[in-house]
Amino acid sequence: MSFALLGLIDALLRNLQALKYQTPTPVQTKAIPAVLGGKDVMAAAQTGTGKTAGFALPLLQRLVQSGPPVASNRVRVLVLVPTRELAEQVLQSFVEYGQGLDVRLMTAYGGVSINPQMMKLRKGVDVLVATPGRLLDLHRQNAVRFDQVQTLVLDEADRMLDLGFSRELDAVFAALPAQRQTLLFSATFTDDIRTMAASILRSPVNISVSQPNATASKIKQWVVTVDKKDKPELFLHLVAENKWDHALVFVKTREGVEYLAAMMEREGYAVDTIHGDKPQPARLRALERFKSGNVRLLVATDVAARGLDIDDLPLVINVDLPIVAQDYVHRIGRTGRAGASGVAVSLVCADEAPQLAAIEALIQQTLPREEEPGFEAEHRVPQTSATRQIIKKPKKPKKPKVLQAASGAAVPGQKPRQQGAGNKRNANGRVAAAGKGTGSSRAKPSATQKPGGKPAGKPGSGPRKPVGKGRSAPGKRPA
Ligand code: AMP
């Protein structure tokens, strides 16, 4: 199959050639002819499948081939997205695919001044990529009118509902012309999405290029179990030990993101952050620096989980698991895009067993587990499985009846404590029995190959290497 056979015009084919796209992806093969034919589409497409080109290419073609030029304060194609980052990224795709075409494109999202957006809309735009809240603000102020809208695209529809945009979406649907084309793209298909689809789509072409809730098959995933308080230090250790050089790192809270980034910066890593407290220009700058390679670790909350397209991203690290299982699919979908292979590693503590079980049920696989010598969890993570069961909650290891003497020497007659179970780790991640300062030497064989070809937990790998300047992370702060 070639793009030419899908009926795309020469101008678009030239741009695809310049981008080195040789063959259409499965979602493109199905979506492009349907969209060109004016049909409604409902697509369950895994993230990274090329869905943006699946709608942008045929819509650009329809724009240049048909319809009156756009009038003042009017829009011809309206693309709704959940986040500002995705808005910029989708716009960028339209720009690349539409090089040389006479089309006006713009984004509109909150968190930045509304006035430049109102000014830009005065001349009318062919494609407006917007987040729902700002779009409604603009509409209420008559800066944008919908009577010329010929196509509505909902990109990452499930995410928009997750983020609570359902009322805004209903308000937009009510204001749009009834006669229009509607394309709905969603990585996952919940009941809410199906209900919405039923109310806004007309005899849609259904496209499903993979199991809707599956993760990209080329992504190698595993879990490292650890105590919550040890996560930052384990993260630092893993990055140094495995020479992880370019990774997107997810942390639950904004404070946690800043904490981890500051720790890594102190250790000499080039790090930046993306989270909801950061102004939009700073978020976009961080993304650009990460994409260009000036920043090697990008630490983010789930705001960054969807839509970000970063070429050749080999690794996603979940320092915390997401609350919503579907976000796991989106997070790790940042790697392994467009057929490339990728790796996703999650640091999981005992509290996160329910989230892990929900993720395994969603992706229908039990994730392989590892322990990092010296970071073994004292609070063991209960066994989980793809049946969503938490199989067994293991008992906490019993505290020794007789405490170790202050010198660190075991009290005669007492069973020695298991290494890693409660032993203090020094600033370099070495495990030291209290007062002794010795490195952990327990290493377990592992078949898992990490990026760079280094086996995890290599047998006989001995004491861990020092990492950086050696500041220990406070135990109480969340990662
Ligand atoms: P998307 O799922 O739309 O975010 O696209 C994921 C990535 O795949 C982006 O980097 C696109 O540039 C790339 N891509 C999309 N379609 C193709 C194609 N037919 N051939 C090669 N790369 C593609």
Residues in β-strands, percent: 15-25%
**Helical amount among residues, as a percent range?**
25-40%
The neighbouring-strand order within the major sheet is: 3-4-2-5-6-1-7
Q: What structural category do the secondary elements indicate?
A: alpha/beta
Q: What is the gyration radius calculated from CA atoms?
A: 25 Å
So, the CATH homologous superfamily of the largest domain? P-loop containing nucleotide triphosphate hydrolases
Q: What ligand species are in this complex? A: adenosine monophosphate
Major sheet details: 7 strands, parallel
* CATH topology descriptor of the largest domain: Rossmann fold
Number of domains: 2
Q: How many beta strands in the DSSP annotation?
A: 20
Instruction: Give the overall form.
Output: globular
Which regions have little confidence, pLDDT < 50, spanning 5+ residues?
400-479
The CATH class designation of the largest domain is Alpha Beta
CATH architectural category of the largest domain:
3-Layer(aba) Sandwich
Terminal-residue CA separation: 47 Å
Query: How many distinct helices?
Result: 14
Mean pLDDT figure: 79
